[in-house]
Amino acid sequence: MIRAYKFLLRPTTRQAAALGEMLRDHCSLYNAALQERRDAYRHPSKTTIRYGDQSAQLKEIRAVDPDRQGRWSFSSRQATLRRLDKAFQAFFKRVKAGHTPGYPRFKGVGHFDTVTFPKDGDGCRWNSTPHDRQTRVRLQGVGHIRVHQHRPVRGRVKTISVKREGNRWYVIIACDNVPAEELPPTGAVIGIDMGTTHFLTTSEGQHEPNPRFLDAAAEELAAAQRHLATFPKRTRQRTKRHRAAARKAAKLHAKVRRQRLDFHHKTARALIADNDVIAHERLNTAGMTKSPAPRPDPENDGAFLPNGAAAKAGLNRNILDAGWGQFLAILANKAESAGRLMIPVDPRNTSRTCPPSLSGCGHVDGKNRVTQAKFQCTACGLTANADRVGATNILDRAGLVLCDVA
């Protein structure tokens, strides 16, 4: 198995300054390489520059500017150039597919937050012993940084990345050959229905409350963002007060993100511990949160009819706050490690079908769902909680999938 471990770094003031310089220098290299590719393409000869061409220039660049470019490891500089190369590969792939291409853009210092070391021991060294709760990571040009290692690292360390999130620093350890930690079988099979009123509902009728972390912090966030918006554009990023206001808003968003992630991990762990098979909807979150298309008024040129965008914006915000995509990804990773089975099913009409496993008739009708919480079949009269009906139908469809596989 492949697994990534993320730990909080505790650098000294001097080490934090060195980490900031490392990000700035790698950002400078990324932007310079991007500019070189743009200039080469705009040249009448239409010269193509690839990763290999730019990587071969690193020795010369380090010799010209040893204080900045020569301070950091050669392999981390190559990883930054590979990052740019992947951006161009993705750009050309989108062009061929006919999608909106999105040409690679220059990175601002505040938006370049990660430096990767492709190999442990080459410019970095992970110093860890089993059950060591306060270990260190050594980075070339920075030194030995304390790490808050809250769990042991298993497997073989492949790559090490340093990431800045607000005013915090993290180290991300990617490992392979991680042994699976299979849990004993329970014999339980369950279906889950994701929602916004309840975060999820199981086929057994249990509801997991939706914590709504974004709503809980909405008032404080709104005040911080209103204060940030009071600065005129011509002074932004130039004054100490503006930078402090931006840091406060970013800190609040980071807190919400950490709370949501912690909730997802704990909820997924509880489901994995109690069930051998978990069925869920195959959700297209990006499509579900897409803004509605405008409705031109056929009688008035340049005018538009109401399209429900305001109401849809509220629903989109609730879906994104719940973080279904992140939760299902975490659930799938934990299931793989624990030896559990995840079955995604087609979500269409799961909340409109009268479930036979609840003594229903299987009738499908949009009118079956009377309200958000109430389901009442128009054919047989079965009444039940609408979310439980959806979870039960999801479980039934997973059973059909298992029968087809068998």
Number of domains: 2
Low-confidence stretches: none
Mean pLDDT: 90
Instruction: Determine the number of helices (DSSP H or I, runs of at least 4 residues).
Output: 11
In this structure, how is the largest beta sheet organized?
7 strands, antiparallel
The tally of beta strands, per DSSP, is 16
Give me the side-by-side strand order of the main sheet: 2-6-7-1-5-4-3
Order of SSEs, N→C?
Answer: EHHHHEEEEEEEEEHHHEHEEHHEEEH
Instruction: Give the terminus-to-terminus CA distance.
Output: 26 Å
Global shape: globular
Beta-strand portion reads 15-25%
Helix content: 40-55%
Rg calculated over all Cα atoms: 26 Å
Model description:
The chain is α+β, with helices and mostly antiparallel strands and 406 residues long. It contains eleven helices and 16 strands. The chain has helices spanning 13-42, 51-55, 58-64, 74-97, 213-216, 218-229, 240-274, 285-288, 309-322, 324-338, 386-405, and strands at residues 3-10, 114-117, 124-127, 134-139, 143-148, 156-165, 168-176, 189-194, 198-202, 207-209, 277-281, 295-296, 304-305, 341-345, 374-376, 383-385. The strands form four sheets. A seven-stranded antiparallel β-sheet has the order 2-6-7-1-5-4-3. Strands 10-9-8-11-14 form a five-stranded mixed β-sheet, sandwiched between helices. The protein has a two-stranded antiparallel ribbon with strand order 12-13.
